[in-house]
Amino acid sequence: MVDSADLLFELGTEELPPAALKKLSNAFTEAFVAGLNKANLQHGAIKPFATPRRLALLVEECSQQQPDREIERRGPAIQASFDNEGSPTKAAEGFARSCGTTADKLGRVKTDKGEWLMYQLKEKGKPASELLPAIAEDALNRLPIPKRMRWGDTDAQFVRPVHWLLFLHGDQVVPCSILQAKAGRFTRGHRFHHPEQIEISSPADYANTLEKTGSVIAEFGTRQAKIRQQVTLSAETLGGYPEIDASLLDEVTGLVEWPIPIIAGFEEHFLQVPHEALILTMKKNQKYFHLVDENGQLMNHFITIANIDSPNPEIIKEGNERVVRPRLSDAMFFWNQDGKKKLENHLEALKSVVFQKQLGSMHEKANRVARLASGITEAIGGDSSLADRAGMLSRCDLMTEMVNEFPDMQGIMGRYQAIRDGESEELAQAMEEFYLPRFSGDRLPQSKTGIAISLAEKLDTLVGIFSIGMKPTGDKDPFALRRAALGALRIMREHALPISLKQLLERAASIQNGLTGEAGAIIQVYNFMIERLKGIYHEEGIPVDIFDAVAVIKPETIADFDRRVSAVVAFRNLPEASSLAATNKRIRNILKKAKDKLPENVDLSLFEYDEEHELFARIGGKIEHVLPLLQSFDYEAALISLAELKNPVDNFFDHVVVMADDPAIRANRLALLTRISDLFLGVADISKLQ
What we know:
The structure is a single chain. This protein is of the alpha+beta class. The protein has five domains: 4-66 and 127-214, Alpha-Beta Plaits; 69-123, no CATH class; 220-338, no CATH class; 344-541, Hypothetical protein af1432 (Orthogonal Bundle), CATH 1.10.3210; 563-688, Isoleucyl-tRNA Synthetase, Domain 1 (Orthogonal Bundle). Helix content is 49%, strand content 14%. The protein has 26 helices and 18 strands. Strands 1, 2, 3, 7, 8, 9 and 10 form a seven-stranded mixed sheet that branches. Strand 15 (289-292) and strand 16 (298-306) form a beta hairpin.
């Protein structure tokens, strides 16, 4: 059995980027473990550690040495290795030299394809101490660091200057130097509570020693859980509830090694400002956790996490309050200044803001969105005049002082300002919904006006940018057209909008008349969106062949597309599905070969077999039953009903030759098959199913 011991690696640095700390730790762990596996060093459980001043890793029961291994090299075939007299050829001698031996010492191996020369070598495993430095260095080099820095007069490069290296395997130091730091058995504690060196005698003692002696909670997850608990308990003392943002919690965890909660607050009059602006200031600028009351309303208190256990926490509290006050004052100033104008007062200013050189200003874009949204609301039962006004005002909040200072307030500020202007509740709601969904999984607009202007905005952008030949290529998508397409598709699909996608695109293009230039833009946008729709279904686990079976029909609306996909998914689970899919494929192939125009009606007098009469009768019955189902969009019931055609169709093909010699009989049978095909095509082309 190979000897093993716990392995500990720690790289001590200046403060690492807090927002990236978790990502760096995960990447380092993954790369280090991959290196161990590649070197065939057996190991047990892995425990990563990450604080602002260190990246570390504990590997339990890591092998002290690689296992020995046998290497087999296959050489040339035997017939090419020896001549007629049995002497080795140049090929055999060359292979022997490459193996460091002679031809007479080579072995042979037989396979089902012949016999070959073979060389066996037993390679002794290397000590782990020789392999570990390169594994660690390679893992550090693979970290996702956009820009590395140098420090002092060294050539070492890392995300931050390196100060120490702890590298133990068992109780022995792994001898090496990485990033100009020489390996040892010493770590360092908290910058203020215990800046001195701390000796680590055993890797297993690392985390406990750092916490008890050095005032450092080394494990990221443990420290994060402690911060969450501290924030929650602190909020309870104020009768509040923390809204803990996951990314903020990650970042704060990356800022501290010894978290201490500090409760602080600000003057109540700041609560007059839109709460989202105050929260943005506290979260993004100050890394504070804000609190809400039992009604979900923002409180004038916050919790900050200090990285020091101060004997006088009141000083830290006052310092944070002093720092945040000017930022809150700025937000109030912007709010008051913006109140001196209405949203519509900013319309003129939009004329000087260019959306895209060939597509005009933001004012022109707002006009187009308003016109397109007006038509959409008529189709979904909304107020077209309200949508027209909402479309015109949709971008006005971009000209406010608040959005200029806090870009994340766009839409939110529009809603607040519309309320302050005395606009209707639905229009105010639509000002924020205009930007939805902002990202994958984000909420959708809910009001009819919001749905209309959000959808109009996205389609106007797609048609416009495609029309001037600037469609996305590779990773380049400067106008976020993929996101726009996905957002528009989600709106149409999840709200089951009864609107033709092609007609919407044509309407958007007609409104842009004179601005756009590239021919075929509408079909390009349509195909682009259908590809995005395929991606949506793929993420939901819908097989590609089911999507293709529906896509070939080109349903008018995305809602109709969705209903058909659901129906085909259900149909595929029927026992008759596989046979009918194959039959439909056969029918489609036969019909493709028909060169002459087929008769519109089937002539019963040309039937020669009972199976033809039976199939014709069953098809007639299905037409009467299925057509109403198709008209009511009950595609699943339609396919279930059509599945009953399996037996009469099978009997027909078993006894009837479709391509008869008589042209009239042949055409009549093809017309009968066309009826079957058309019935299924009323839902989807199931011949596409695999």
